[in-house]
């Protein structure tokens, strides 16, 4: 994800991916990163983005957004942003957008929030289907518990509404083991985020090298491999080591773990 290298242009991101051995990149929109993959990109810019990725042999595997749907007050604006994200993804040859559940609106029960998120995602599903784009709800924020995310999936009940399994958050804050989270979410996983870390003495999260934090990446990769998962595993590191340090290192660790399965 471009949080690893927010200062790089799209061409620089693609060159880095080739150099380090990544087969895809995940631009994060709405964060003023330098890559230029944004909702307001012109038709010409969108064509150039698509061509640059194609020429590099590196896929734009997901468009990460800030869209979230669990608050009645803010959801309408996020729905419009999600519609723009679907159009952008289709134009640049990307088949996934990442969205959040987000903070549950004041006064809403969990059941009401599940219904609201499912209804908002359902309202986007036909547009996503027309463009062959998958809307992937991340296990994050107020939606770390995989059981809550599964309920949203069951209620939205559409093949283009899927899950972005961030393997860390259900273990850290969702009351689930790695295997439990996977088994609950398995029918809907279409994208995966990986990273490792710990909570420090002040309760703030700190990134750590894969294998030195709380996330059992080998268990996650085993689950994915045994299930026949053939989509992307995307590294998400924010404000951490220099990209030329952590990007090749973390990928090498992941490949070693995969080879050991």
Protein model, in words:
There is one protein chain. This protein has 261 residues and is of the alpha/beta class. It has one domain (2-259): Divalent-metal-dependent TIM barrel enzymes (TIM Barrel, Alpha-Beta Barrel), CATH 3.20.20. It contains 9 helices and 10 strands. It has helices at residues 10-20, 43-56, 75-92, 110-130, 146-156, 169-173, 178-185, 217-227, 243-259, and strands spanning 24-25, 59-60, 63-68, 96-100, 134-138, 161-166, 189-194, 196-199, 205-208, 233-235. Strand 1 (24-25), helix 2 (43-56) and strand 2 (59-60) form a beta-alpha-beta unit. The radius of gyration is 18 Å and the shape is globular. The model has no long low-confidence stretch (mean pLDDT 98).
Give the helix/strand layout.
Layout: H1 10-20, E1 24-25, H2 43-56, E2 59-60, E3 63-68, H3 75-92, E4 96-100, H4 110-130, E5 134-138, H5 146-156, E6 161-166, H6 169-173, H7 178-185, E7 189-194, E8 196-199, E9 205-208, H8 217-227, E10 233-235, H9 243-259
Parallel strand pairs: 1-2, 3-4, 4-5, 5-6, 6-7, 7-10
Antiparallel strand pairs: 8-9
Round the Cα radius of gyration to an integer and report it.
18 Å
Compute the average pLDDT: 98
Q: Briefly, what CATH class? A: Alpha Beta
Query: How many beta-strand elements?
Result: 10
Distance separating the two termini: 25 Å
Tertiary shape:
globular
Contiguous helical run count: 9
Main sheet: strand order: 3-4-5-6-7-10
CATH superfamily name? Divalent-metal-dependent TIM barrel enzymes
Q: Multimeric state of these chains?
A: single chain
> What is the H-and-E element order?
HEHEEHEHEHEHHEEEHEH
Percent range of helical residues: 40-55%
Reported CATH architecture: Alpha-Beta Barrel
- Proportion of strand residues: 15-25%
- Regions with pLDDT < 50 over 5+ consecutive residues? none
- Give the CATH topology: TIM Barrel
Give a short account of the largest sheet. 6 strands, parallel
- The tally of structural domains comes to 1
Give the structural class. alpha/beta
